[in-house]
Amino acid sequence: MALNSKIILHIMGLLLLCNGGFMLIAALVSGIYADGATLGIAIASITTLFIGISAMYFTRGHKKEVKRKEGYLIVTFGWIVMSLSGMLPYIFSNAIPDITNAFFETMSGYTTTGASILDDIESLPEGILLWRSLTHWIGGMGIIVLAIAILPLLGIGGMQLFAAEAPGPNTDKLHPRITDTAKRLWFIYLGYTAAETLLLKLAGMTFFDAINHSLATLSTGGFSTKNLSLAYWNDQPLIQYIVILFMFLAGSNFVLSYFAFKGKVQKIIKDEEFKFYSAFIVGFTILAALVVYFQANVPVTEYHPMPLGAGESSFRHSLFQVIAVITTTGFVTADFTGWTPFLTVFFFGLMFMGGSAGSTAGGIKVMRHLLIIKNGLLEFKRTLHINAVIPVRYNNKTVKEHIVYNIIGFFVLYMLLFIIGALVLGALGLDFVSAIGGAASSLGNVGPAFGSLNPLSNFNGLPDLGKWWCCFLMLAGRLELFTVLILLTPYFWKRT
Amino acid sequence: MALNSKIILHIMGLLLLCNGGFMLIAALVSGIYADGATLGIAIASITTLFIGISAMYFTRGHKKEVKRKEGYLIVTFGWIVMSLSGMLPYIFSNAIPDITNAFFETMSGYTTTGASILDDIESLPEGILLWRSLTHWIGGMGIIVLAIAILPLLGIGGMQLFAAEAPGPNTDKLHPRITDTAKRLWFIYLGYTAAETLLLKLAGMTFFDAINHSLATLSTGGFSTKNLSLAYWNDQPLIQYIVILFMFLAGSNFVLSYFAFKGKVQKIIKDEEFKFYSAFIVGFTILAALVVYFQANVPVTEYHPMPLGAGESSFRHSLFQVIAVITTTGFVTADFTGWTPFLTVFFFGLMFMGGSAGSTAGGIKVMRHLLIIKNGLLEFKRTLHINAVIPVRYNNKTVKEHIVYNIIGFFVLYMLLFIIGALVLGALGLDFVSAIGGAASSLGNVGPAFGSLNPLSNFNGLPDLGKWWCCFLMLAGRLELFTVLILLTPYFWKRT
Ligand SMILES: [K+]
Ligand SMILES: [K+]
């Protein structure tokens, strides 16, 4: 089968067109603030629009059909093309002149990782700060389409299971599902972003900070406009609780939000993933809060005001960090790697959790953990009753064996890539803790990590090769591994 | 089904009888050296023999049949009963008066982990030192029976696959296989131990050190009679090369050794696991040696003489530590956690490798990694061709799907237990690196770990609870997880 390269190019052109459009918004904001970056961003926008339109023009006579193999290429190349064009505003405005750094920051944006190479965020022009947040938000939109419409068709990591629950026509073609389901969920995504912006503004943030943090929350991205991240508002609990609420929503299945607005509350209560997602957060928060309150070596008070007392402060910071890590948002109100040794291991473990399927969160995700745990328990039963067929059930339905296989395969691959990821970072000179923390955080699209990459630090200290390697890990993690890695197998390139 | 508790007790009695017998040997050696521990060891022996004989006497009228469920209980209780009786020589001789410490040292012995709580090994009486090495060797014998005869029948972790290759009658009853196959392999095990003792003596070790180290090598245990472990002989490369050879053999499938003695060399060359086991060792050694030679921060020379030059020294230490960790023997010639950050991560990764199936090595094991990697690669092919049935092949045979499932289930459970293991150690106050290193090392039965548990240190600094927790991890890891954990599930205790 020859690949339909025309349609791949055409879609890349379309992506560039959209990206260029978003850059125009950033240029406009830059102009309003007269922050000095306007011309740079505008040139980036025009360049991107021009290349996008050209690509679309020269491939206008393409066949409309997209086959599976082309699907993988479109998704992976799509994210790379977005990052290559998305770094132009940084470079042209001289905000991040170095190509490695600019690419890292952009890839970290579109993959909604939120790891940064910037030592002083607050010195950046407003237009650039907005562009940075927008890369998150655009990435989040991409993830929604991916989860709802594309990955299930590509047969990746058990997403079929989840897609069966999604609203919209159930055809096997990409187009109707994208236009229909994705649009509904994008609308919710947009609505939540607007709602958070409004609430944060009312709670006392500036409008600029409010919109930037909302863009970074709903996409579970984690870029902040402040060097201290959300710790900047440690004396304003209300702001942090609002962010907590929206991180929770961003890490839950958007399809459930859709049901909520349709009044189908029953569907939400019955959803096994949502139950466990909530239960995990509650359980882990209580555990963390007790440890922080009674044990933390570095008292929360040391650099944190406690407007509502030590109890509330312990609870809030614990809840905030548990949700920030589980949903892979990665906002920071306190350095959890400095709390206690136990909590350091604890948060390291949480890095492997991930939010819900159908959310913008990265990581392994609750649905997969649930199925792996269920299957693991049943494996004991199967060991005892060798001849019985004992299937896994999820949301009251029997899960097909090949899907369970698929999910476990994903888990194994994730762990393997984590170990290789850490080894490579170690080879590049990172110490043990930073290497395994950096790999786990990049692969899970979390953002903050451990050791020299702790929540109060950033990724700027990495050698250039390490930055590129983290870009690869972020991309592979974000696109559910298979989408990217399959391009590296001989099976893919064999003509059949 | 009511459990046949009589036969369980009867077999426990038999185990105690054997154990008491071995203690007599230690008492005898103690007497020859007049080391002051003779009476203590003798009392331990008599106590053990008495309890064993009593148990056997009172259960002499048992039904001969052993069912699967009883199999799990016999294996797990067997190791615990051995450890409970095996710690008596330490306690009665006052060598290790503390019960927690004595139990830890004994469990570490029988599980062939080789982690120690002793700060000064060389001050121990000879009889106790020999007993310590004997616990390894007895544990190794147990592992051989387990791997060849018991686990395959219990349907655990893909061992069925390996057992099909083993020599001996192919019936479904435990007895004929145990008596037949296991005896042949025990003979090889004994032969190798004698051969290593002889060679080490010839190379310059004292006879006492030679036999102790041989007992600890063939069982992949790792207890040494020297505080410095094998680093004591860093100026005698020949001794270390001999140990390297026998660690390699101990970590390879004993069935292959059997074939070698039968002259069936073809069977060895064709064995996929052996090929990869060897290839991994060669590859990892070259990599490590290059890094040590060109990069190591702590030069090997600092506390190591280099009788044959820096090149040989780098090669030897790298080869030694790679084999010591892969085969989970855990002998130490140099502190690999002090070499370079990369090698620290590297050796941490190797902790998850394990030797061959059918060896005395612990860990996940090469066969499982091979099948997981093969299946993982095929998963890409399956993703591209959704309707094709693409089975995994191993040693030129198609592997049944439920066995692949079994193996992947083992891997997932292993990783889960590792994370929980590390979390608990963290909760008990260990720092991050020590917690994850200690969990990986205990679960894999390696011995030396990282951080405060580094190869030059020991496990004595752990709090008591931490020692008991490590005992659990060592036992679960040694008995291939399912055997122990299945006893903790409700399925097991449900009457059917
Ligand atoms: K993030
Ligand atoms: K060992």
TrEMBL record, chains A, B:
It is found in: Cell inner membrane. This is TrkH family potassium uptake protein. GO terms for cellular component: plasma membrane. K(+) binds at T112, T113, G221, T328, T329, N445, V446. InterPro entries: Cat_transpt, TrkH. One of its GO terms (molecular function) is potassium:chloride symporter activity. It is a multi-pass membrane protein. It comes from Pelagihabitans pacificus.
